[in-house]
Amino acid sequence: MSLGMALPKAELHLHIEGTLEPELVFECARRNGVSLPFATVDELRLRYVFDDLQSFLDLYYLAMGVLRTARDFTDMTDAYLARAREQGVRHAEIFFDPQAHLSRGVPLREVVDGLTASLRTSEQRFGISTRLIACFLRDQGPDEAMATWEALRPHLGDIHGVGLDSAEVGHPPQDFAPVFARAREAGLHLVAHAGEEGPADYVWQALDVLGVQRVDHGIRAVEDPELLRRLARERTPLTVCPLSNVRLRCVPRLAEHPLPRLVDAGVLVTLNSDDPAYFGGYVGENFAAVQRELGFDDAAMREFAANSFRASFLPADRREAYL
Ligand code: ES4
Ligand code: ZN
């Protein structure tokens, strides 16, 4: 096994709905009586070729339409944890998209109960500690985000943070200042996708207007030297997803990924899988691909793994136990 696969690591940028493998799509469709616009697992897999973020999101929201009951969410999460363990994951901070299920008539109770039924026993079964982060769909706008916040309130005992995801361009972080202020007052951790397809200015907004503790993706920060200095000085982590960036054509090929420039600028970078069922690899494969294509030595790979714990929301004593 490659070093990148074996290294103990935390995964900090992982959409649980993006772990839904084609086989489970068909199994949930069958047991829930949902009809699909593809006949076979292979036919679905053939669609995993994307032009940009939106073309991926269209399929991502379509496929998750088979998730109807708590059991579906439990099975999906169990499958992810089993795969993650094989890839050295010891801690996972997991995103989910409440609005993507509420809008289909699936009660939030069903979603959260399903996820937590799996996560509750993750440490015993898989040796993986977990946190749950609820993301607002930025393309549904700030009013719907605030309504979603209200719906989340009864579940805050199970939720450690909020994030911001979905179609980025035209949906700047600053629009979501009010809902992030509420989450901050409630003591939640704050993260946001920014600088994936959107400009470096969205990363500034995520930091200065939303007050996020980590930036998801953030790769377009390389276009702004002052922003790089800010991220490095304040030790604000970026959760970078190399295979995702190539598959969604944010970066033409892995060999041209801005990762080395971020590292050279002194930014605290972590490596993650984003939506591993869709992008050709789980987090260990992201580590292995980065080492192979960008030529990082073993010490650099160990540093990425150490960064994943430094950037996590584990308490300081548990973070340090991994370093
Ligand atoms: C996502 Cl790759 C990516 N970017 C933004 N939002 C997302 N939701 C799921 N995957
Ligand atoms: Zn993401």
UniProtKB/TrEMBL annotation:
Pfam families, A to Z: A_deaminase
Enzyme class: hydrolase
Annotated catalytic residues: 196
EC number of the protein: 3.5.4.2
Cofactor: Zn(2+)
InterPro entries named in the record: A_deaminase_dom, ADE, Ado/ade_deaminase, Metal_Hydrolase, PLipase_C_Pinositol-sp_Y
Function: Catalyzes the hydrolytic deamination of adenine to hypoxanthine. Plays an important role in the purine salvage pathway and in nitrogen catabolism.
PANTHER family assigned: ADENINE DEAMINASE (PTHR43114:SF6)
UniProt protein name: Adenine deaminase
Organism field: Saccharopolyspora rosea
